[in-house]
Design goal:
Elements lengths: L8 H31 L6 H9 L13 H13 L3 H26 L2 H12 L2 H8 L4 H23 L5 H17 L3 H14 L7 H24 L3 H9 L8 H14 L1 H12 L5 H23 L11 H12 L3 H24 L18 H14 L4 E4 L2 H10 L6 E4 L9 H5 L11 E6 L10 E7 L9 E7 L13
Parallel strand pairs: 1-2, 1-3
Antiparallel strand pairs: 3-5, 4-5
Helix pairs in contact: 1-4, 1-5, 1-16, 2-3, 2-18, 3-4, 4-5, 4-6, 4-7, 5-15, 5-16, 6-16, 7-8, 7-9, 8-10, 9-14, 12-13, 12-14, 13-15, 14-15, 17-18
């Protein structure tokens, strides 16, 4: 697929210039995101605070995800301090590294022009612009996928040359293992990689190299598998719960496919579809198409029977960015428009998180409501409970527990979740459920006003109408429980 310029001096000079442009642009965008993260005036979302909480124990698993996201957050906050920037800064660095890997692997199978478009397109997609401003499990998974693709291409080249490549095989196994430790959706990548190897010799491995890569991958994820077994496969039960069937539908998968225009960007996603449907199929594009289609088709199949979210197939962004670039390189004006739109979003989103926290959104709430209002409510509850001499503060729901844990780090209060009636619904119910025999009193309960509570005689200590933000206009009350056993599920033995 190369353009033949690499053998000429002017071609080599042009490629070197494109490499310098790519490196400068990637480092510049990443540095901008890092600086804006340090100025960020929003608060952690529930998910981000939850990931930080997971990292406090360095376990090999968590309620709903593998453990890597918690480990990354723990290491980052240990180095940078417990702050919003400490949690989010790794996201910008990870995506910058992913773009560099994409440029390198795209240049190997195509031209430097395609590699430049692929790397910058990836870095400025809406999903990556958002993912660089927050900390999500997709972020380390996408870096792992890019490294896995680079390793597989290297192993494919070694196979065609008839030589073993044990170092690359180990690297592939580590990348696949890291991806699975970041998010179980990395399994989609394994399926796509297998089909890619069947379709194209560029993606085909020697059997010994494949066996070595598989062994390394299993060795990396073995502690997580053992953790799952010891914890009744709680993470898999969670996946089963959120994908439970809601009746067959042809609209859900179509809606999911349409949403990818917002995930990847409208021009880039159409370019990807045209590249996958094109007749001029090469060995490289055949393998990339298999890798891109695998997560998309799996999630669309899930959409037929149950709910799906737009980011569940995010893995396709890695091969998809290269495929779209192969098509866009022949349409320079569309390339400029696509990258221009991506750059506008890349600049606007971090700016909004610094200077746009007061921007109005729907229903009278701030536009960034999901990332505002956590601290005021949590600090009121923690300070009031401490002033009342409480030993334990109990709350209902993942969001409240995430906020209390983040803002109450180092507090002498025991922070506990209302015990579940059945299978735990979140991490705190699984690991920090209230136990009246073990947790110190007095016991205070943080409760939304108007919700039924089977605790007669609970004494109200204080109340707060939540500020504009994540909790809207909900009024919370702090209640003293003289008989906290009322929080246990019916039929429990206190």
């Amino acid at each position: 697929m190369r353009d033949g310029l690499h053998s000429a001096p002017d071609g080599r000079e042009r490629d070197a210039a494109l490499r310098r442009i790519a490196l400068t642009a990637i480092l510049g965008i990443t540095l901008f995101r890092v600086v804006m993260a340090l100025l960020d005036r929003t608060e952690l979302s529930t998910d981000e605070a939850q990931y930080w909480f997971w990292g406090q124990t360095f376990d090999f698993g968590a309620y709903s995800k593998p453990p890597l996201i918690g480990w990354i957050t723990r290491l980052s906050t240990d180095l940078l301090g417990q702050s919003v920037a400490g949690v989010r800064l790794p996201a910008a660095l990870f995506h910058g590294a992913t773009a560099l890997v994409l440029f390198h692997l795209a240049a190997r199978i195509s031209t430097a022009s395609v590699a430049l478009i692929a790397a910058l397109s990836y870095l400025t997609t809406p999903a990556v612009a958002l993912g660089s401003a927050l900390m999500t499990t997709d972020t380390p998974m996408l870096l792992a996928a890019a490294l896995a693709l680079a390793a597989q291409l290297g192993l494919g080249q070694a196979h065609m040359q008839g030589r073993p490549a044990p170092g690359l095989a180990v690297g592939l196994g580590l990348a696949l293992g890291m991806g699975l430790m970041a998010k179980h959706a990395m399994l989609f990548w394994l399926a796509g990689a297998l089909v890619a190897a069947l379709l194209s010799p560029l993606f085909r491995l020697r059997m010994r190299d494949a066996a070595l890569a598989g062994a390394v991958m299993l060795l990396v994820i073995l502690p997580h598998l053992l953790w799952l077994a010891r914890n009744d496969f709680i993470t898999l039960h969670h996946v089963q719960d959120i994908t439970r069937g809601e009746g067959l539908s042809a609209l859900r998968p179509l809606a999911f496919l349409a949403e990818q225009a917002a995930v990847m960007g409208p021009i880039l996603f159409v370019a990807l579809l045209l590249a996958m449907a094109g007749r001029a199929r090469t060995e490289a594009s055949a393998g990339l198409t298999a890798l891109a289609l695998a997560p998309l088709l799996v999630v669309m199949a899930q959409g037929v029977k149950g709910p799906v979210l737009a980011n569940w197939a995010a893995l396709y962004l890695i091969p998809g960015s290269v495929l779209a670039a192969i098509w866009l390189v022949r349409h320079p004006w569309l390339t400029r428009v696509s990258l221009g739109l991506g750059l506008v979003l890349t600049l606007a989103l971090p700016v909004a998180k610094v200077w746009g926290t007061g921007l109005p959104g729907p229903k009278g709430q701030p536009l960034l409501a999901r990332y505002l209002g956590h601290g005021e409510m949590a600090e009121w509850a923690l300070e009031t409970a401490s002033a009342a001499g409480a030993g334990t503060l109990v709350a209902q729901g993942r969001g409240l527990m995430a906020d209390l844990s983040w803002f109450g780090a180092g507090s002498s209060l025991a922070l506990r979740a209302v015990p579940p009636k059945g299978r735990p619904a979140h991490h705190w119910e699984a690991t920090a459920a209230f136990d009246p025999k073990a947790d110190p009193g007095p016991v205070l309960l943080l409760w939304p006003e108007g919700h039924p509570l089977a605790c007669p005689g609970a004494e109200e200590i204080s109340r707060l109408k939540a500020p504009a933000g994540v909790y809207g206009a909900i009024t919370f009350t702090l209640l003293r429980l003289d008989a906290p056993e009322c929080l246990l599920p019916p039929g429990s033995n206190p």
